[in-house]
Structures are given as C-alpha cells and as structure tokens.
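Query form — protein N-acetyltransferase

QUESTION: What is the three-dimensional structure of this chain?
INPUT:
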Amino acid sequence: MLIRRERPDDHDEVAAVTGAAFALPAGSGPPVEVALIGALRAEGSLLAAMTLVAVDPSDAGAQVIGQVTASRGTIAGRPAVGLGPVAVRPDRQHGGVGSALLHAVLGAADALGEPAVVLLGDQRWYARFGFRPASAVGVVSPDPAWGDHFQVRTLSAWTDALAGPFRYAPAFDGLE
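ANSWER: The structure tokens for N-acetyltransferase are given below.
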C-alpha cells in the first residue's frame, strides 16, 4: 500500500470509495460526505498536503482503496485542521488502511506546524491515534450535542493559549 497526496485524477475514485464507505439504504441518494468533499474542493478549503489517498499497487491500475480529507478550520480564529471524511473501500476495511491514513495525515500535520487536528467520530477508534474529547483541552465544539465525539489531537505546535471555539470550513455549514 502507498499513501500519497490526492491528485485531480483521483477525484472520481475518491467519490466512489467515500460513497461506498458511507453508503445509505437503497433509494436514499448519495451520502453527504461525497458532496462535502466536492464542496471543500470548490471553496478552496482542502489542505492539499494533508488530503491523502491509499492505493494498492497490486490492484489493477493502482486504484484508490482509502482516503482522508483535511480542510482548514480554526480554533478561536487561528488555523487548525478539520479532519474528515475518512473512508476505506468496504472490501479493504479492517486491514490497516484507515490506520495508515491516520498516521500519515497526523505526521504531515505535525511536520507542517499545525497545532491540532479536530474531528467528529468514534471515540474508541480515534483514541488509538491520540485523539481525546476536545473539551479536555478547551476546544469548544460547534454543536454541544456532539459531546465527547468531538475530538482533538494536539500536535507539537499546540499551546494551551490556542484553546477556544472550533469552526469548520464553510462547506460544513451546508451539511444536513
């Protein structure tokens, strides 16, 4: 498996992987995560150095088997990374693809001097990567109903003075 930056020619495969990973019941239409990635691209909020794909060179054509989307968010008006969606092709789930993507994106974010990566997700799964409830370090969720599912992974550039309300990229405002 190879983890690399997403390229424009990956967009259709990223949409297919994301659509399959977040599939809704038949007749429900595509999952919002697919449209979200497109909206983040269109508004220029994607962080190209941290929006990654996993490819398996042994697959015909080295198809995308997983992806992670990183976008510009803010904590108290200062830059931070909003993570998600993260998706793995259903036939490749539970094989380490998602973990490899998370390790890669966190390493890239730290190397680029980002102070924190923020996400909404399963606490049990993301805890293995050092995520914890955002409220534990004073990062305030955009929606209090998210509770401890709203999580943060602080990085080397983090200081407690960076705490405050988190805001996702504008594309997230259109989610239903």
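ADDITIONAL NOTE: Residues 2-174 form a domain with the Aminopeptidase fold (CATH 3.40.630.30).
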